[in-house]
Amino acid sequence: MNGQELIDFIKENRLENVEVVINAHFNTSKFMELRDLKINRCYTRVKPSKTIGDRSYMGDKLKIKSITNGMIYAERLGYFAHTPDWNQLALPIDEWGEGWEEWKGE
Fold this sequence. Notes:
This protein has four helices and six strands; from the N terminus they run H-H-E-E-E-E-H-E-H-E. It has helices spanning 3-12, 16-26, 84-87, 93-96; strands at residues 32-33, 42-45, 62-68, 71-76, 88-92, 98-102.
């Protein structure tokens, strides 16, 4: 059974929590989806925004604060962490809902 067959089996049997772990461990999906993001965990952008192709925040350490009212609220960590005008983000879900990956590093 390859990785995709395993994911299909998990979906058919509604084992959604296992699917997230498998995706993260074996990288069977290209990018994390919005439903995979957890509050107060760190992620980075690995894909430009959906329609305008904006590459902002790619490679930046972003801590998800909340996902509400059609927006992803995040705190920008690292180099911009001590710059108040640059560290708080409000990203529209329709533009920034795809292309996330869990932050790896310190």
